[in-house]
Model the fold of this input.
Amino acid sequence: MEKYFDATYILQSIPMLLPFLKVTFMVACLSILFGTIIGFILAAAKLGKSKIARNLANGYITILRCTPSIVLLFLVYYGIPAIGNNLGMNLNDIDKAVFVIVTFSLQFGALMCEVIRSAYESIDKGQFEAAVSVGLSNIQAYGRIIFPQAFVVALPNFGNSLLALLQEGALAYTIGLIDIVGKANLIIASNYNAHALEIFLALSIIYWVISIAIEHFFLKLERAFSKGKQSLKAL
Amino acid sequence: MSEGLDYKFLIDTFFVALSGVPIALAITIVALMVALPLGFILALSRINRFLVLHRFAQIYVSFVRGTPIIVQIFIVYSSIPLLLDSIVTKYNFEMNVYDVNPIWYAFIVFSFNTTAILIEVFRSALNTVSKGQLEAAQSVGLTNVQAFRRIIIPQTLVVALPNICTVTVNLIKATSLGYALSLQEITLRAKVAANVGYNYVEAYIDIFLVYLILCSLVEYIFKLYEKRLIKYKAVNA
Done:
């Protein structure tokens, strides 16, 4: 009789899964790029003077925070082609990765808005005033004084959001994108559903290693950037 | 498909989706009831560096935070029947392991997941309560249990509450993954209703609305509770 659990399957399936990491990373990187842009726009709206813009940004964040990513994913997947249909466009043939990127950009934007806002607000207003008073222009003050400081504050939260995005991204397989999770499901299906556990364990190991690597990378980055930071203790 | 939304279906399915709310809430409540005490104890073990337990908690938290919840669901869903099966055949129980209600798997996965996240929440909250509080409580003659119940836990809870709210909302959102366990909750019910006429857009709008209402309500309740707890907040903050 065949064994129920066979650890060799874990080792065998890891090399089969790794090439598909490329798809996962590609989707994640593009989502981070677009999501950060959305986050900046939202943060600007939230910190700006216009009341309408602020309410819109708040509403957007509340809605996105209350929507499960899988629901948002399917809403985008079925909704965008339906809207396109009504406008006379045929959007049924575009790549599935596009829908995934749209979904996770929207979601990452809401996360990033809060990260950017809290980092910006943590910088004392006097910093900007001091920069302007020594003769820097507005752009210089932001570019040289405010941004570098806010960046360091935002770094840990950015890292956490990135990990969250990577894990939510695992849901992309539900609309048929063949990323690492999709491939794992394909392998299981081709094995007639045998040894599913081993392949899922291999999948979890891959994710675990990536997460730990990202976490360490951000810790290192944080340490490198906060070198020049002066806390109150130094006084 | 191009004739726009089917409003009758939209309204009918809204109530179908709404009928899945009790299951989503049941999972959330059970998971929180298991995870709150367990997370608190493990957080204490992390802070006090309690022998093996704190290493175990560290690895456990790292695993849960490092892997997607859907993968955790897959692992539990494919490993527990195997375990049960070997136990059943060993001791000759009269039981069919493949007939277990999927809600039990959901309880296990979500409790497992939430405990790990709450360990981190409680750990950071416990760190904000100064050690002098415990010493002061002991010096006026309270026992350890009394000191924790009356002094430490209320203060920890105030700090942890906003994070617990986030965890709860995330948990409710995560129950939408119950479809992978073929659990009859909000998402699956509406999806099955949509299968008949391919009205997926309407079904997902309904699911979206149900989650939006549910999560906003939970956030509102937490806000109210936070106001009540504020009296425990340290004055010098």
In short: Chain A has one domain: 8-229. Chain A has a mean pLDDT of 85.
